[in-house]
Amino acid sequence: MVAMLGETTGESALRAMASRMRADPDGKVLLEERPRIRDGDVASWNLASLPEASLGRAYGDFMASHGFDADSRAEVRYVTDDELAYVLQRYREAHDFLHPLTGLPPTVLGELGLKWLEMIQTGLPMTAMAALVGPLRLDAAERAVLTRHLVPWAAEQGRAARFLMAARFEAMLAWPLHQVRMDFGIAPAPDVDALLRHYRSVGWGGRTGLAHLAPWKRAGALSREDEASVAPAVWGSWRRPAHAPAR
């Protein structure tokens, strides 16, 4: 039901995503070759043989440590346009690469941080729905981490980074993880576990001594600029998708 809703409500966003992919050299290759990320592909990459600090090794360790498999991603069924169906399929299958790329864990809180990032980059309505409804499952400390740290991080990084949907992760497996981040202009997310420990020890409203936990920017509330841009993004970003910065 959730997958069907996501597929039937995002056509305009998918068209905008496809347009941005065509404008990017790597994204254009993806649309022409339409590679998949399935268990057979992952097995052929020999991730365990890659350097420890590489993207591929980090992805393999992430998948293995959490018992995930690439084939668990649902096939797109309700998008009739072949290119748009591939764009949505790629979005689903590339998602797990975003965890080692950003450092966010596959918890409800970590996934919400990624949904905010994806919402700002893609404008998909399903990401906005998750960003709005998901916080209902969080406790007070988790909500504090989300609103005070992850949302500001996602707002800044989502606008500043290259379009992540154009990433040919398969061609970057041997790259050092820090080099992949530099190439896409994205900084790791704040340390979620450390922030949760802090808020649970001093109370969810505490803010003392948190700057070192958010190296991308000093911890704090959204700037006025972010407040003005993030709220409209929830409701209308799929109508007015942000343009990717020049490479």
Automatic annotation (TrEMBL):
TM ranges: none
GO CC annotation: extrinsic component of mitochondrial inner membrane
Designated name of the protein: Ubiquinone biosynthesis protein COQ4 homolog, mitochondrial
Subunit structure and binding partners: Component of a multi-subunit COQ enzyme complex.
EC class: lyase
Glycosyltransferase found in the keyword field: no
Catalytic activity: a 4-hydroxy-3-methoxy-5-(all-trans-polyprenyl)benzoate + H(+) = a 2-methoxy-6-(all-trans-polyprenyl)phenol + CO2
Subcellular location as annotated: Mitochondrion inner membrane
Family of the protein in this entry: Belongs to the COQ4 family.
Chain's role: Lyase that catalyzes the C1-decarboxylation of 4-hydroxy-3-methoxy-5-(all-trans-polyprenyl)benzoic acid into 2-methoxy-6-(all-trans-polyprenyl)phenol during ubiquinone biosynthesis.
InterPro entries: Coq4 (IPR007715), Coq4_euk (IPR027540)
EC number: 4.1.1.130
HAMAP family linked to this entry: Coq4 (MF_03111)
Major location category of this protein: mitochondrion
Pathway: Cofactor biosynthesis; ubiquinone biosynthesis
Membrane topology listed for this record: Peripheral membrane protein
